[in-house]
Amino acid sequence: MSRLTKGILCLVASAFGFALMGMFVRLTDNYGAPISAFQKSFFRNAVALAIVLSLFLKPDRKPFFYGEGSLAVRSTVLALRAVVGTAGIFANFYALGKIELADAMLLNKLAPFFTVLFSWLFIKERLTLRQGLCLLGAFIGAALVAKPGLGARPLLPVLSGFSSGICAGGAYACLRQLGLMKMDGRFIVLVFSIFSCLASVPFMLVDFQPMTTAQLLILAGAGAGAALGQFAITAAYRHAEPRRIAIFDYSNILFSALLGYLAFGQIPDILSWCGFAIIIAMALIMNRK
Predict the structure, then answer these.
(1) What is the pLDDT of residues 146-192, one digit of tens each?
(2) How many CB atoms lie within 10 A of CB 4?
(3) CA 287, CA 264: separation in Å to the nearest integer?
(4) 60: which residues sit within 8 A by CB, 6+ positions away?
(5) 3-state DSSP call for residue 266?
(6) Which of 2, 45, 87, 19 is nearest to 197 (CA)?
(7) Residue 247 has pLDDT above 70, yes or no
(8) 202, exposed or middle or buried, with CB in 10 Å at 0-12, 13-18, 19+?
């Protein structure tokens, strides 16, 4: 199996994991008192942290901080990935609580554009016109699925949603750089999970709400989906360049629609089906021989 194929499969698995996470996060408030985005983020990341810690119990001859290149550069990129990734989560969760789901989802799906852009600017990975146009086409497809109406929305949540896409794109570009440095994917996820949990605590304590057993179990599911998403996307950008695979991040739209139907009985309309078709077509064109 080629590295490109491995990268595509990992990114699709990541998209499925994050779609699962989104479904569980939306279910949380149906089974108890509403809880804040920061509280959801903390428990989501705590579960992911427990999963990654269990992986470090296995014997491994490589040191945790193994990698190629300067230690200072690796540390800087690793810290940047944790900071911008956490900021992206907070921004996305804030937008989800203030504007319609479709608007927040579409703004967050700017991430593939910024992943490719930052990789081109800072890692010097080539970008062709066809790849850029395919990314634009996939974003149009996502817009048909989301059907946003940003015109009458409050400015701050819209800017927050836009920022979440920029931060996610920056975080994924950092993952690509760390992959090129041969850093252990488990260690990358471990650092991110620890930082995200610690950063959530002060905000969570301001408006902490006791949770029901059902909410705890649902957030455990969200954490498991997030862990799958984090591990898979870390592996994806280790295997292949963002310009070749970033478009497959839009499979999250397809998985979200399927899970929305299964969990909430939401049936996509004709525009959504057109959007799905465009996303799939752009992915095929992007990688045609």
Answers:
(1) 676 655 567 788 788 889 989 999 999 999 999 889 888 888 988 99
(2) 14
(3) 34
(4) none
(5) coil
(6) 45
(7) yes
(8) exposed
The pLDDT, as a whole number, for residue 93 is: 78
Amino acid, res. 156: L
Q: What is the CA radius of gyration of the chain?
A: 18
Tokens read off for 80: 């940047």
User: CA 176 to CA 116: how far, in whole Å?
Assistant: 10
Which of the 8 DSSP states describes residue 259? H
Give me the long-range contacts of 48-54 (CB less than 8 A, separation at least 24). 48/189, 48/193, 48/223, 48/224, 48/226, 48/227, 48/230, 49/190, 49/193, 49/194, 49/197, 50/223, 51/223, 51/224, 51/227, 52/186, 52/189, 52/190, 52/193, 52/227, 52/231, 53/190
Q: Are 21 and 44 in contact (CB under 8 A)?
A: yes
Every domain of the chain and the residues it spans: 3-135+146-245
Residue type, 30: N
